[in-house]
Fold this protein.
Amino acid sequence: MDAIVLPSGVSVNQRPVDLGPVVLVMVGLPARGKSYTARKVARYFNWLGYRARVFNVGEYRRHNLGAGQSHTFFDPHNVEGARARREMAHAALHDLLQWIGGGGEVAIYDATNSTRARRAWVRQVCQDAGVRVVFLEIACEDEAIIEASIRRTKVTSPDYVGRDPDDAAADFRARIAHYAESYEPVDDPDQSFIRIVDVGRQIVVNRIQGYLPGRLVSFLMNLHLEPRPIYLTRHGESLYNLDARIGGDSPLTEAGRQYAVRLADHLHAELPPAQACTVWTSTLRRTLETASWIGRPSRAWRVLDEIDAGVCDGMTYAQIARTLPVEHAARKADKYRYRYPRGESYEDLIARLEPAIIELERQRHPVVVVAHQAVLRAIYAYFLEHPPETCPFLSIPLHTVIRLVPGAYGCEELRLHLGPTPESSQGAE
Ligand code: F6P
């Protein structure tokens, strides 16, 4: 039987239907990596096209009460402090539920939520609003990880502007001790929860149902904190690039081969042979040829193949505009959702690339991704937190290597044009 061909421009929902919006309630003592995890989760779901947002109670405190409270403010015996903190927790939860009412899908309630009583309150308020709750506890008893987190993220936080770092660290440890006095781990077998211990050494999953929480578990299982570079590069210039044709499976031009050699030299200089490293390519000839000079173990992935231009494969943009003006106009109107007849849209591409993102998160040593313009736009958008709709317009030029180092507070980026400047300068349409 022939495959059913959808009319061009028809948008098929890429996102599985789920059980409705979900509130992810972070739980954990300070400096365990809750905010880091919350932001990564929001970024992941946003990239997949869901409306996700973090509501951080600490930000409400800083915004409404000003930053810089000393540890005594967090002492459970400080009646005034406890009342003020409760108010901030209420304000953030109220805004969160309003946001869900307006169409939000994954809301992350980022606070310590460290007692059973506090969690029972959050669950009740969400239940009354008809929204599911999943608790996500980040537990960590590894003193080295906690100390590194205090030094890296806390002493530089707005709460300690102008304070001596040792002094700030001591105050923060006292703050943790106040919370630890009444801390109760998440352990109610009747509730939905995920508990991550010591950055993934152990993960407990309890009563998790539905598509979104399921995706979340798989994502969380692959997170780690070790910094390592990810290199993104398009293949060297191909014959199709030179002819300004899209898609296809053409070999490299002479300039493309020169780039491949320069890329290999550059990577040899940055990653000495003793340094483990993997090269990923698509299954298309131009990426395989580009990677062949690098001389490292490589893996060809079909998920990294270029966006499928369907009936337009092999055409130039000018030909498409002339012979398929309706398609051309539809793509111009919504480049992100536009699906080539018998081909793909950027939205499709992101769904296809999800396993590659999970795998990139999991890797602990450098990875070099040799792929294609649209594919790298989607991957780059994930790491640099660009909204998915903007990814078709991101600049990923030929003969340029982009070095990304994901970290606790965003992603470092370095772009290096290695040349030669390609004759074809294929840009976005
Ligand atoms: O032109 C090179 C290329 O990789 C094509 O194969 C692909 O269709 C195109 O880039 C994607 O870019 P855009 O979405 O801007 O057309």
